[in-house]
Amino acid sequence: MAELPHVLVVDDSRVVRISLIKHLKDSYTVREEGDGEAAWQTLVLDPSIKAVISDLQMPKLNGYELLERVRTSKLRRLQQLPFILVSGEETEAERAKAREMGVSDFVTKGAGSAEILVRLNNLLALQKAQESIEAGREQLVQDPISGLFSHKYLEMQVAQALSHSARHGLETSVMVLGFDNFDKLCERFGASVAEQVGNRFAKMLEAKMRHEDSLGHFGDGRYAIASPGTAAQFCATFAERVREAVELARLTVQGQTVALTVSIGIASVPADAVTSAAALLDTAGQRMLQAMQAGGNRTESGGILPATRPISINHALEMLAANRVDPVKPHVDALATQLLPLIRLINQELGLALPMAEIEQRLSERNLAKK
Mean pLDDT for the chain? Predict the structure, then answer.
């Protein structure tokens, strides 16, 4: 007979552990621990454990703290481990906190064996499917150094996203990014070095993307991101953030400082009347070329405007230092409101006699006018 999957049950109550083990023992091999710290040690040392069922209130390390350690672990198997919390009288806010931390599911205290087994079986089936997808991804990786997916794989991802969007009435967006004057970068440093620069750029993108997004090669010096469930205006907002970050960055290549810019094309469904994943990617690619032909360092989204988002004071200062005043102007009122306490202190310490009452009145009037 095949070995049963291993599950860890964590609860400071021996009675609760016995009850859970009774429900699970016919389908799973169960290990048990009485506190979160002991459970953590077990998880680190025993790679055979496939899921955790944990109480919230425990000595040494409570359920939240154990969940946080698991999700922030350097061990990938723990980051993705199905984790069920046994819920008692927790508030909705506490449940929301657990969801944000990455809990997989909740089981109510006193739940019957059928409910516990269904939830656990579903989570393990999902985990197995995800592992299968990951294995498939590895076979579709174009470049083992960069870890980026192929154009064909991205097309498959977009096709799946479009199918899901059609069923659930959601939007799907894609963006294609290309280095402006990539051919000149190749001439200056060689194609191999230019590709390494692109890989560094890709790593920066990966750090900013959602887990459900997919990043891959679109061509030489060009990359694409598929974003299922993302509206075009939010994709445009993300594109602008990426474009600005590249523009402000200064890479060192072979001891030389290199200033780079990117042009970005965006396409989305249902805003763009396309019927296939290939057509959606091609539309975004054509818009990227339009952005390049218009001078580069810009985003072409087919008329979709980025969703309004605030910028931080540090970001505003970086933009001004780069002599980019226009993108900061729409945020002047909000930035000034944040800086008022500092302005008051400067006025007081330097004895400037600034018209603070007038400044505050003007800001108040402008903020009211926007509502």
Answer: 85
